[in-house]
């Protein structure tokens, strides 16, 4: 084994990795949870860990409240992810991936057993019995990789495919500021272990539904500037869903594409909720910490990528969030 498993990890992370390996070895019945409206990092980490535990002969249930979008259906093991919990299953260990807090799994989620918390959000509430929190990790998939290495296991093509997807999802295919030399080192080992970059990219980027592309075109055509063009925002209203015929989940990368406009520092995509209120996706090029405003509205995330879910009047909330951004631009 190379010394990659100890590469750049802070000492606390190193201890957490050892403790996780100890728990994996000692226990038999596991539950792996991810956050609601899962992204590629969440699903890739859940499934990567699933294959690890199954290889070790463990009993594993996978829980995600969903919805799981179409372009993740290629992931090996995706059929084992369930949107409901088996009430008769009593896990000895509940493992959380990519979840800053327990209620990211579901509003009233009741954790059971010994809790392992693996995450890279610096705002993580450290709710686990073991907390492996490393905000220098580009993706939780990278953290799962270090656990697998420490276990001394061979990385199968299934594990490699899931973890590679995690990494490309959270780095925008190695474009975002979280991409480091170690991200490439991990990715290279995953490719050597059987992850096929072109096939994974084809499934992830090139299997969109026509409705999603139609909806995306409307979002991209109707953007608005604020703060002298430093902020761009757009929206998906319920009416747009109805006319485009898309599923109730926007194409994920849209807000990042809006950020691509020259001169823009921050992009926000508002998503009107059928139940009243909105979800806001916030992305920054690095000069503004968008998690500040996300937190003010009950959400959170990373400095460059955050989100919030707020109930109330859609138009009022939209104005409030845009107004709350004033502090970031006035300060500059
Ligand atoms: Mn993530």
Give me the secondary-structure topology:
Elements: H1 11-26, E1 29-33, H2 40-55, E2 59-63, E3 81-82, E4 93-97, E5 114-119, E6 130-133, H3 140-151, H4 157-171, H5 181-192, H6 197-205, H7 210-221, E7 224-226, E8 231-236, H8 238-244, H9 254-259, E9 266-272, E10 278-284, H10 291-296, E11 300-301, E12 305-310, H11 314-324, H12 326-330
Parallel strand pairs: 1-2, 1-4, 2-3, 4-5, 5-6, 8-9
Antiparallel strand pairs: 7-8, 9-10, 10-12, 11-12
Helix pairs in contact: 1-3, 2-3, 2-4, 3-4, 4-5
Tell me about this structure.
- This protein has 332 residues and is an alpha/beta fold.
- It folds into two domains: 3-205, inorganic pyrophosphatase (n-terminal core) (Alpha-Beta Complex); 210-330, Roll (Diaminopimelate Epimerase, Chain A, domain 1).
- The chain has helices at residues 11-26, 40-55, 140-151, 157-171, 181-192, 197-205, 210-221, 238-244, 254-259, 291-296, 314-324, 326-330, and strands at 29-33, 59-63, 81-82, 93-97, 114-119, 130-133, 224-226, 231-236, 266-272, 278-284, 300-301, 305-310.
- The chain is globular, with a radius of gyration of 20 Å.
- Manganese (II) ion binds at residues 41, 98, 120, 139-140, 170.
């Amino acid at each position: 084994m190379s010394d990659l498993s100890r590469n750049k990890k802070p000492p606390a992370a190193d201890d957490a990795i050892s403790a996780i390996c100890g728990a994996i070895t000692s226990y038999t019945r596991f539950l792996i949870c991810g956050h609601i409206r899962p992204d590629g990092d969440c699903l890739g980490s859940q499934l990567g860990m699933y294959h690890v535990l199954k290889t070790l002969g463990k009993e594993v249930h996978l829980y995600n409240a969903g919805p799981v979008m179409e372009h993740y259906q290629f992931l090996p093991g995706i059929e084992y992810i369930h949107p409901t919990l088996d009430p008769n299953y009593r896990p000895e260990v509940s493992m959380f991936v990519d979840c800053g807090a327990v209620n990211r799994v579901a509003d009233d989620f009741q954790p059971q057993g010994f809790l392992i918390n693996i995450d890279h959000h610096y705002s993580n509430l450290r709710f686990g019995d073991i907390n492996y929190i490393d905000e220098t990790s580009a993706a939780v998939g990278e953290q799962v990789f270090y656990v697998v290495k420490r276990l001394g296991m061979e990385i199968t093509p299934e594990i490699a495919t899931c973890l590679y997807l995690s990494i490309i999802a959270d780095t925008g295919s190695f474009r975002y500021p979280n991409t480091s030399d170690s991200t490439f080192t991990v990715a290279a080992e995953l490719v050597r272990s059987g992850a096929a970059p072109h096939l994974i990219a084809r499934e992830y980027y090139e299997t969109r539904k026509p409705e999603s592309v139609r909806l995306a075109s409307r979002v991209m055509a109707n953007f608005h500037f604020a703060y002298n063009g430093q902020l761009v925002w757009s929206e998906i209203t319920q009416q747009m869903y109805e006319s485009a015929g898309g599923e109730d989940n926007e194409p994920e990368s849209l807000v990042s594409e809006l950020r691509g406009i020259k001169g823009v520092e921050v992009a926000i995509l508002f998503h009107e909720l059928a139940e009243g209120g909105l979800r806001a996706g916030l992305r920054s090029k690095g000069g503004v910490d968008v998690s500040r405003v996300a937190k003010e509205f009950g959400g959170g995330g990373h400095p460059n990528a955050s989100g919030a879910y707020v109930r109330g009047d859609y138009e009022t909330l939209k104005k409030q969030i845009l107004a709350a951004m004033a502090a970031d631009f006035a300060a500059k």
